[in-house]
Holin (Gordonia alkanivorans NBRC 16433), 79 residues
Amino acid sequence: MFSPQFLKDAAERAVKTAAQSALGVFVADVTVVSVDWAATGAIVGTATLVSVLTSIASANFGTPGTASAVSTPEKPLDA
């Protein structure tokens, strides 16, 4: 389950989730100066942890050796 491909996929998902959740804090018209960084850290940390746990839970589904719950075709589909 913890193959290099799986770790790469899980890390990519975790980094994207962390960035998205951090940016989500600024949607409410909060500036960098006025943001509660402790709360932001807690939000980002929780979202990232959930992302990693979701990747681990998805390991037995989808394409083997990846963090994806969806199977991908062996070769790309024609459009």
